[in-house]
Write a structure and sequence with these properties.
The protein is α+β, with helices and mostly antiparallel strands. It contains 2 helices and 2 strands. Strand 1 and strand 2 form a beta hairpin.
């Protein structure tokens, strides 16, 4: 779930909530890799949102 909050000063807060369960053997065997890949995908998504608004330097994780 993504929640975006637009503030009067033009800034935007984004809250990402994810619920998942291991679906493959790889997920069960290597949770740190799974976490890394999920974080990378979320960061790319947030970077895309920020870039579309012309503010990529304000992306935080």
């Amino acid at each position: 779930m993504f929640i975006l909050t637009h503030h009067d000063d033009g800034s935007v807060d984004v809250v990402v909530t994810a619920v998942w369960r291991p679906a493959t053997l790889a997920n069960l065997v290597c949770p740190p890799l799974t976490r890394f890949l999920q974080n990378r995908a979320i960061n790319r998504y947030l970077h895309g949102i920020a870039t579309s608004q012309g503010q990529p330097e304000k992306v935080m994780t």
